Amino acid sequence: MKTSLSALSLALCLASPAFAEEAAEAPSDNNILVVGQKDAPVEIAPRGLTVSLGAEQFAAVNAFNTEDLIKYAPNFFVRKRYAGDSNGVPGFRGTHSSQSARTLVMVDGFVVSNFLGNSFGFAPKWGVVGPGEVEQFDIVYGPYSSRYLGNSMGGIVNVTTRDPKETEAFATAQGFVQPYGQFATKHDYYGYAAEGGFGWKQKDGPFSLRVTGRFFRNEGQPMMWYGLVPTTGAAGTAVTGAVVDPKQVEAIAAGTGLANLPPTLPGQPAQALPAVPGSPTNPIFAAQSPARITQAQTKLKLGYDDGAVTGQFLFAYWHNEDRQTAPDCYLRDAAGNTVCEGRVTIGGQTYTAAGAVFSKTLRDEFLAGVKLAAPIAENTTARIAVSTYQIARSDGFTSNGYVTGRNNGAGTLASQGPTGWWTADLAIENKTDRRELAVGVTGNAYRTDQTRYTLANWTSDAGKAFSTRTFGKTRQLSAWAEARLLLDPLTVTLGARYDDWRAYDGGLTRLNTAGAPVGNAYAARGANSLDPSLSFEYRIDDATRLQLSLAMATRYPTVGELFQGSLNGDGSFNANSFDIALKPERSKDANLLIAHDFGAIKLTGSAFWQRVRNTIFQFYGFNQFGVSSSTYKNIDLTRQFGFELIAQTQDWPLPGLNIDANAAYIDSKTVRNAANPAAQGVQFPRIPKWRVNANLRYALTQAVEGSIGMRYASRPNTDLFGLQRGNTYGFTSELFALDARINWRMTEQLRVSAGVDNLTNNRAWVFHPYPQRTFLVEAGWRL
Predict the structure, then answer these.
(1) How does pLDDT run across 365-397, given as a tens digit for each residue?
(2) Residue-wise over 504-525: b if at least 16 C-beta within 10 A, else e?
(3) Contact status, residue 537 vs residue 436, Cβ threshold 8 Å
(4) Among residues 689, 12, 10, 623, which one has the least CA distance to residue 264?
(5) Per-residue pLDDT tens over the stretch 1-13
(6) Strand locations in 512-600, DSSP E?
């Protein structure tokens, strides 16, 4: 694999996506353009490495969901475990796949990043957009524009949806299947989707309207496996069927497994401990139920453009159901009956089987936003945007065990609401041929409120009894300014951003020993910061461009990192499960780019560096009651640097052949961690040393196009100390996937496509399994 992969990486290191210009700015000879959109301007300020992807790239992707459209972008990934996964966290360069609060994601300029928390459970709300309505994806790496808050420390993603230019309509239907096998689980998982909409543009008038909708259903493979826990005492039910994972045994024997972590230190629990329910170090007796996902989405976009004043109103609704009601239990007793819970005996050793549960999660969410731009003086434009994202309902029902789940017995309910956020942005821009000035103010407010209940019947909230409630708020007010000086052939951009942040109204309510609610209130706190930015762009000649970008950024703790406390197994408050005193992350960033256009081939080289003080990291462990817990803590200092080679070929080396490819090297380390020095000098978790993404497109005929995509990431560390390295469940492994697709335009309006993701059926893990080989068929129609 390594030899063939190295050869393939070298062969494909020729091409990629693009630098482009800001939507409000006219194209300039001083702007670096890499690939993707050559004519359409990007919708976000292109400071640092900027990639813009459009229809040509999208047509070559098997897009089960919207975030799939960007899976070949340079040094970029989305932690997507199965089609319909609502925990798809994007990651840039050396950003951990659970550091969701370091990426700013927007739809048509409205924030859909879930900054209510910072983990895989707070992924952007990709589902408010269907893949069929995306016009382009713009991606900016790093916080090099003062226009954007410090959550852009990793990068910025903006999804632009289509504006109708005339009366139009479209419809797309998809069907897909994943033949899956892992341990004793062997099953075919099916899914399908239907998407459609219409657009209307007023003839000789300023108004436009676009209405779209999508229905999606899929069954994703199991995400977890449960291990038997050795115990003593009386023998249990004699069973067979447990599975020992040889790769897990091999990792532990090599001294790199979960059983070899350094001792727990105050304030930083171990990443995981062996011999607990659900630990992958023990014989596996069951797989978590496949996730049966149902999603319904609809969106309305009303536009106005009279040539001077532009405006837009956007409303998107997303319904999401996740039902997991069929755990795959491997154990059988002497009569052949399924055993999934209790004391069991295998070969004279007694174990406890526990952890397999039934669950369902129901969510209703919506995005609403309005923006307006109008001239207010000569060469001066004012822009305002206001939006809100609200989680109207989020109810997670879970049984207390396998037997109670099967028999509709006791369970718990985690209910959110009111939960969501508001954002507002006002900017004034003045532009001439020689300079561009912009000033603005922004604000946001986030609120979380989650209540847990105990249930007599886990499937219903009837008769629910209060257990705990956690709640809190944050708000951030900001002012920024940028000046762009066009000193041909040199362009200089200077900026600064001031942020004032506050966390308040936080607390936890629980039941005391007498069964009465009692509360823990957290004191309010605030902080502020001033962060500068500076960028130089230089046109060496007509084919060569050079850019240096420098910036500082401050990422404040999210409301969830501060206020989402939890309880111990005996119901007492766990004081280490949160940290109201978390310090904000503060980064210093640099990015150097050089791009040269050879004609048929365009190459871009990039070098990046980032140093972060007080990195916020989520630690996992098990408390004294065997209950899984997590806590957020600051790491004193981390740093990353790396290099990227990005290229594009057009009709080369064969007519009709286009290649986008990129390769990246990342060195990301913990430099100082006084709470546990064992982490110092170790590659940061889940950050590979190497990433290679590529996409090849070839026009077989005028009507038929084929494409091949590749995704590769070398094996990273799983934990902060570099001791957990393996290629199986519970670890973060090497990733290698080849994808293929073919499109046939039967008529100008009708297209049929077929594709396969992970053609070689490579098994890869991000603790949970990535998808195995998946087949897709698709038909699309456009008016």
Answers:
(1) 999 999 999 999 999 999 999 999 999 999 999
(2) bebebbbbeeeeeeeeeebeeb
(3) no
(4) 623
(5) 443 344 333 333 3
(6) 517-522, 525-541, 544-555, 566-567, 573-574, 585-597
Of 535, 578, 529, 460, which is closest to residue 30 (Cα–Cα)?
535
Rg (CA), the chain: 26
DSSP string spanning 520-537? EEEPPEEEEEEEEEEEEE
The amino acid at residue 393 is: R
Dump strand ranges (E) for 378-434.
380-399, 411-416, 419-431
Q: What is the pLDDT of residues 194-244, one digit of tens each?
A: 999 999 999 999 999 999 999 999 999 999 999 999 999 899 999 999 999
Domain ranges of the chain: 2-782
Using the predicted structure, report yes or no on whether residue 28 has a pLDDT greater than 60: no
Tokens of 5: 């992969």
Q: How many CB atoms lie within 10 A of CB 302?
A: 15
Helix (H) or strand (E) segment spanning residue 404: helix 402-406
Beta-bridged to residue 33, according to DSSP, are none
CATH number of 2-782: 2.40.170.20
Angstrom distance (rounded) from CA 173 to CA 376: 46
Region of 467 on the Ramachandran plot (φ > 0 left; ψ -120 to 50 alpha; else beta): alpha
* Of residues 51, 106, 116, the one with CA closest to residue 312: 106
Cα–Cα distance, 58 to 74 (Å, whole number)? 15
- How much is the pTM? 0.91
495-554, pLDDT tens digit by residue?
999 999 999 999 988 888 888 998 888 899 999 999 999 999 999 998 999 999 999 999
Signed CA dihedral, 680, 685, 688, 693: sign only: negative
Unique residue bearing structure tokens 């229905």? 215
- From CA 274, how far away is CA 276, in angstroms rounded? 6
| Closest by CA position to 459, among listed 340, 364, 356, 358 | 358
Q: How far is CA 167 from the centre of its chain?
A: 34
